[in-house]
Amino acid sequence: MKDGVIADFKVTEKMLNYFIQKAHNRKMLVHPRIVIGVPSEITQVEKRAVMDSAYRAKASEVHLVEQAMVAAIGAGLPITEPSGNMVVDIGGGTTDIAVISLSGIVYSRSVRMAGNQMDEAIMNYLKRKYNLLIGERTGEQIKMEIGSAHQLDKPMTMEIKGRNLIEGVPKTITVDDGEIREALSECVSTIMNAIRVALERTPPELSADISDRGIVLTGGGALLKNLDKRIREETGLPVSIADDPLCSVVLGTGKMLSDFKLLRKISIE
Question: Residue 5: phi, psi to the nearest 5?
Answer without folding.
Answer: -130, 155
